[in-house]
C-alpha cells in the first residue's frame, strides 16, 4: 500500500490513520472528545452495559507500605444480557442452567496455570480459604446488580493468604459465552482477563495479576444469576511463609507495573492465535508487549525502524500525525511502538497514548491547565468542576505526570482531575 521513491516517502494523511495488518481488530482513535476545551465541555453518555471486568491491584497495606489506595478498572460493553424474544429467553435459560459451575471452577484453575506455564511461571495452588472467599464474592454480585468494582473486597477475609493480595472479577452473559462447556468457558473468561477487550481503560492489570511471579495461591468463584449472567472471581495471594521468600522491593516493583498502560511481556496461545506475522514473534533481543493506543509524532519528520532496530529509508511519518499502535517492541533494550508491518517508532520520537474503548469522564478539581501534545502548557485553562469526555491517556513528557486528552492537542493532568 506504500509507494517507494528514491527519497524518504512522508505519509501526509493528516486525518487518516495508518491501516495495516496489525493483527486482530484495529481500534481507531475515539472522536468523542470536545475540540475546543476552553469554550465547551461535554459529559459521557450512560449505557446499559452487561459485560464487566475489574482488577484489584496488590493490596498495598499487605505488601510494602500503609496505603489503602487500589486502582480499580471496570469494563463495559453494550451487549444485552437477555434475549428479546420469548423463544430466545427460554433457550438462554435452558442453556445456562446446564452449566456445571464446579466444573467451570476446576477448568478456570487449570487454564490459569496453563497460562502461567506458557510464561515460565510456577503454578498456583488452590486453597479452600480463597475458594470460599472467591465464591462468596461472586454470590454477592447476584443480589447487588453486578460486579462491584471491588467495593466489597476485603483482603482480611483471605487470611492467612492475604499478603500480596489480588482480585480479578468479571461478569459475562450466557448469550456471549454461548456454551456450557467448562473448558471453553474457562478459556473465554481467561482470555478476557488477559486481553481486556471490554475494558474502557485497559492497563492489562488482570493479566499482570494472573502472571504475578510473586503470588502462590488462588481461589476461584463462579455464580449464575437467574437472568443468565455469569460471575467470575479470582482471589490470589500469599501466606506469611511464601511471602517471606520474596524481596519486598521486587514485589513492589511488580506492583508498579500496574501504572503502565501497556502489558508486560507475555504470551497466551489463545490471544496470540492470529499473530503470525514476524513482528509478533519474540526472539533474542526482541520482545513484545500488547498496547491499545497509538502515538502522535512531534513537529518533525519521524523516522521508522524495522523489527531489527534498523532505520528504514523508504518510509517516515509526517510531523504532528497520529498512528495506531497495538504493541510495544523492546529491541536490544530500547522501546519502539509498532505502527505498521515492520514499521516501528522510537519511544523518544513520539507521544505514546492509550485509548479508551468507550470513553471515560473526568471532572476538574481546579482551574486545570491545558497542555499540548508535547507537554507544554498552552496558556489555557478549563474551569473547576467541569466534566469532560476523555478518549486517551498519556504521560506528559516534560512533567512525567499522567494526562488525559479532552480535545485535539489538548490535555489536562491527572493531578487536577478526578475520574467519574
UniProtKB/TrEMBL annotation:
Q: Which residue intervals make up region (Disordered)?
A: 33-91
Q: Where is the composition biased (Low complexity)?
A: 33-45, 65-91
Q: Where would I find the SCP domain in this sequence? A: 110-234
Q: What keywords tag this UniProt record?
A: Signal
Q: Where is the composition biased (Polar residues)?
A: 46-64
User: Which stretch is the leader sequence?
Assistant: 1-29
InterPro entries found in the cross-reference section? CAP_dom, CAP_sf
| Pfam families the record matches | CAP (PF00188)
| Protein name as catalogued | SCP domain-containing protein
Q: Which species? A: Companilactobacillus futsaii JCM 17355
Q: What is the lineage of its organism?
A: Bacteria, Bacillati, Bacillota, Bacilli, Lactobacillales
Amino acid at each position: 500500500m506504500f509507494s517507494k521513491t528514491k527519497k524518504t516517502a512522508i505519509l501526509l494523511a493528516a486525518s487518516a490513520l495508518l491501516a495495516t495488518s496489525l493483527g486482530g481488530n484495529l481500534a481507531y482513535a475515539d472522536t468523542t472528545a470536545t475540540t475546543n476545551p476552553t469554550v465547551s465541555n461535554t459529559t459521557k453518555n450512560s449505557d446499559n452495559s452487561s459485560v464487566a471486568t475489574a482488577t484489584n491491584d496488590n493490596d498495598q497495606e499487605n505488601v510494602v507500605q500503609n496505603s489503602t489506595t487500589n486502582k480499580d478498572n471496570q469494563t463495559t460493553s453494550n451487549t444485552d444480557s437477555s434475549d428479546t424474544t420469548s423463544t430466545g429467553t427460554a433457550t438462554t435459560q435452558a442453556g445456562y442452567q446446564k452449566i456445571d459451575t464446579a466444573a467451570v471452577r476446576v477448568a478456570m484453575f487449570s487454564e490459569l496455570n496453563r497460562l502461567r506455564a506458557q510464561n515460565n511461571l510456577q503454578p498456583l495452588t488452590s486453597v479452600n480459604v480463597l475458594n470460599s472467599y472467591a465464591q462468596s464474592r461472586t454470590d454477592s454480585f447476584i443480589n447487588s446488580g453486578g460486579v462491584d468494582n471491588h467495593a466489597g473486597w476485603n483482603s482480611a477475609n483471605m487470611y492467612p493468604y492475604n499478603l500480596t493480595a489480588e482480585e480479578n472479577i468479571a461478569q459475562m452473559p450466557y448469550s456471549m459465552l454461548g456454551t456450557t462447556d467448562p473448558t471453553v468457558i474457562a478459556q473465554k473468561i481467561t482470555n478476557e482477563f488477559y486481553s481486556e477487550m471490554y475494558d474502557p481503560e485497559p492497563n492489562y492489570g488482570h493479566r499482570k495479576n494472573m502472571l504475578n511471579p510473586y503470588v502462590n495461591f488462588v481461589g476461584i468463584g463462579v455464580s449464575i444469576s437467574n437472568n443468565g449472567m455469569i460471575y467470575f472471581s479470582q482471589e490470589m495471594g500469599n501466606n506469611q511463609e511464601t511471602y517471606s521468600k520474596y524481596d519486598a522491593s521486587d514485589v513492589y516493583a511488580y506492583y508498579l507495573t500496574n501504572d503502565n498502560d501497556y502489558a508486560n511481556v507475555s504470551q497466551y496461545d489463545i490471544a496470540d492465535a492470529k499473530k503470525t506475522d514476524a513482528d509478533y514473534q519474540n526472539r533474542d533481543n526482541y520482545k513484545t508487549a500488547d498496547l491499545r493506543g497509538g502515538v502522535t509524532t512531534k513537529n518533525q519528520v519521524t523516522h521508522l525502524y524495522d523489527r531489527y532496530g534498523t532505520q528504514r529509508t523508504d518510509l517516515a511519518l509526517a510531523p504532528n500525525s497520529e498512528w495506531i499502535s497495538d504493541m510495544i517492541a523492546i529491541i536490544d533494550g530500547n522501546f519502539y511502538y509498532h505502527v505498521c508491518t515492520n514499521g516501528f517508532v522510537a519511544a523518544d520520537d513520539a507521544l505514546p497514548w492509550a485509548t479508551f474503548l468507550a470513553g471515560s469522564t473526568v471532572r476538574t478539581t481546579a482551574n486545570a491547565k491545558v497542555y499540548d501534545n508535547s507537554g507544554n502548557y498552552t496558556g489555557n485553562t478549563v474551569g473547576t468542576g467541569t466534566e469532560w469526555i476523555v478518549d486517551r491517556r498519556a504521560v506528559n513528557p516534560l512533567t512525567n505526570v499522567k494526562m488525559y486528552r479532552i480535545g485535539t492537542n489538548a490535555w489536562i493532568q491527572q493531578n487536577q482531575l478526578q475520574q467519574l
